[in-house]
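Hi R.,

Here are the chain sequences for the assembly we discussed:
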Amino acid sequence: MTGAYLGVDVGSVSTNVVVVDGDGKILARRYLRTDGRPIETVQKGIKQIGEEIGDKVRIAGAGTTGSARHLSSMIIGADIVKNEITAHAVAALNVNPQVQTIIEIGGQDSKIIILRDGVVIDFAMNTVCAAGTGSFLDQQAARLRIPIEEFGSIALQAKNPVRIAGRCAVFAESDMIHKQQLGYNIEDIIAGLCEALVRNYLNNVGKGKEILAPILFQGGVAANLGLVKAFEKYLGQEVIVPENYDVMGAVGAALLARDAVSRKRTTLFKGFKIKDLTFKTSSFECKGCSNLCEVVQFYQDGELLARWGDRCGKWEVQAS
Amino acid sequence: MRISFPRMGYSYIAFKYLVENIGHDCVVPPEPSKKTLDLGVRYSPEFACIPFKILMGTYLEVAEMGADTIITSGGVGPCRAGYYWIMHQQILKELGIEMNIIGFEPPLHDLRDFWKKLKLVWKSGGVSYKEFVRVLQVAWEKLKAIDDLEQLSFHVRPYEVVRGETTRTLWKALEMLDQACTVADIAAARDEGARLLNLVTRDETRDPLRVGIIGEIYVVLEPSANHYLQIMLGEMGVSVDRSIYLTGYCGRNTIVTPEDDVFAMARPYLNEAPIGGHGVNSVGETVLYAKHGFDGVVQLAPFACIPEIVAKSIIPRISRELDIPVLTLFIDEQTGKAGVQTRIEAFIDLLEKRRERKRKGRGRLVV
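And here is the predicted structure of the full complex:
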């Protein structure tokens, strides 16, 4: 059996699980909706991947990323836990070593990563507001009863995109509704929304950044052709959507795991059997001092594996 | 009077001493919590920045605890925070809460106003002028000792082997300071606190990155307003330097202004009218951190803070010219710290890679 690497990216909207070979080529991949249940979704993803290729490869290393990266590392037994920015950069460099700009838009986050000579030199991420991210597009698609998958291609049919205020998702929605009630075409409104999101992105996370080609567009939202076109229009440059744009974070985590185990040569991965384990979390408020920290406890098959959330560290037990 | 004041980090220890020893009762403001935020957001204008909302909540909490007077500071220059105490007073009045807010402006700004307010606090307490001055001096010593110990903790924490040991030791040291009542006792407590901090088990093989923290004073100084960023960075193995200390701030803004340094540093980048708040400081301090060889800078800004937004727009140029990465974090009502953690982790990755590459470039040994 050949050695392969597992990457798990648990985000607000989607949970992605991939298995890659030593060169980062994808052997198996799953894109699941997190649906607010990260633990079950990770188990489900691992189960499906295990059924597909569990008997063909040996997992030599595992990594996690995404906003639930610490939680998912406890579930699968990860060799490395990395933030999404580093994971996306690593995956993008593997696809295109010359990449200088990464646009990444996910469910709740949008980020820009600036690289030079294969190294991240700057990045920015939306801080206070999630305007212009995948969740908002999801909502608007649902409101218009358009499958999100068709959202982008409808935008491409627009002849005359209307102007939508993109500064804030709530403002954008009311502006869209006003325009729709005035009788504008749905495709012109959707295309207008795409342009508003791009303006907001460039003006917010992209502010002050030197955006040079090659530009890679990653994250679930890159499926939206209307946005790709709007980015190209505003940047005046080609925007490349890599083949596995929607699971790049997971690929990055797998590649980082490969590098991590190359040094220590063993893996902490618990194996595909984790689908049969029960994981549970509970939390309590520590009354030890006035901080009243909310401490989370993590159990595997009834056994306490880890605690976190306390500021002073007194509840922390290391997972063995 | 039953006096309270805004909570900013550990400074309450010194202010408590001050209030109690000039003949008043002290209502120690509780650490800003979910309750503070709920109250503050509920009774503040929606567009006010987070320091306003947290203080609003704090004032309502201390009113409930029996405070009848709040001592706070005003501010100079085009930043709306200078008017906040007046707004707070109005809102409390509308809510039917009997509370007198005394906002001290920098003395050089309006000496008569300063003296009038100081006299009110002194006379109503009933201690002699000599005693009043003595207590002020002791409180000032306390404040300095608090700053010293906290600063030391920033340099110890990145080396700690057991997570939380530095923080717990710091709390212990601050408790000792809290008990100290004379200049000599304070010096002894500070030395003992420093000794204990230096005894924290350290892993000397670590090579911490050095990161400076700049930004608006309230979100920089009150840990609960910035997701305990300084502790978070320390526990990730970063040695932190904070641009603002209360003693530094008071020392500069009340009697003399050797802020000239920072302002001079900022001038090549910002030659127009002063932008108020800590905007000019943020620009100047970024330059200073770059010149002192820091690995990076984190800017903390309340969401929609004009001075910090102006600074943020200028900083990319400093970043490029002086080769220092800067991460800006906007702070608002959000209490989930996962987002901040992600950005900080990524920033540290970036700084580490950068340092590695620089050292290789210079042919220095990478440890």
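The two ends of chain A are 28 Å apart (CA to CA). Residues 278-320 of chain A form one domain.

Let me know if anything looks off.

Best,
T.
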